[in-house]
Amino acid sequence: MQRINVVGISGSGKSTFSKHLASILNATYIEMDCLFWGPDWTKPSDEIFFDKVEKKLTATQSWVLDGNYSRTADLKWKYADTVIWLDYPIWLTTTRVTKRAIQRAWSQEELWPGTGNTESFKNMVTKDGIIWWSISRYHVRKKQYEQAFSSDDDLGVEFIRLRSPKEADQFIKDCIYSAKG
Predict the structure, then answer these.
(1) In this predicted model, what pLDDT tens digit does every residue of 98-135 receive, in sequence order?
(2) Which of 10, 62, 66, 72 has the most Cβ atoms closer than 10 angstroms to its Cβ?
């Protein structure tokens, strides 16, 4: 495991898991949202976004990439050797994403350096807000990853599906043990 893409619906804990794993493996942590979102919630063209992703993935030998952006799967998985799917129940991801959105709206923390982007109470519950997006995309995303993980395509990528925080914690413990061994 040198080049890992951690995927899962919003609220699954991708960022926390990815940062921890990157630290254990002494790998570079890359957050796709940071590559995607510009100031005032501006979105780049796919050409610009894909170029940013590819430059990050080729800049170092060992990385943990945190994020979905399904349209980038071919690009990400061309470089990845492992894809880890945090496949948690919808009740858990919805609870987590709601709690996180409220905390962020309250604190007004900048989400990605230099963007000025923050959560707002008003936007978090709209059709375009993170809570509704997470709920409405849950089953779509699950189906996409189930298909990818069961595909006969030989992408040269190891797929790992973790179905609970307990499994994820055990995976991290096993990585720590392997790193020390």
Answers:
(1) 999 999 999 999 999 999 999 998 888 788 888 998 99
(2) 66
- SS3 of the chain: CCEEEEECCCCCCHHHHHHHHHHHHCCEEEEHHHHHCCHHHCCCCHHHHHHHHHHHHHCCCCEEEECCCHHHHHHHHHHCCEEEEECCCHHHHHHHHHHHHHHHHHHCCCCCCCCCCCCCHHHHCCCCCHHHHHHHHHHHHHHHHHHHHHCCCCCCCEEEEECCHHHHHHHHHHHHHHHHC
So what's the pLDDT on residue 178? 83
**Assigned token pair, 4:** 């890992």
How many of the other CB atoms lie within 10 Å of CB of 139?
A: 11
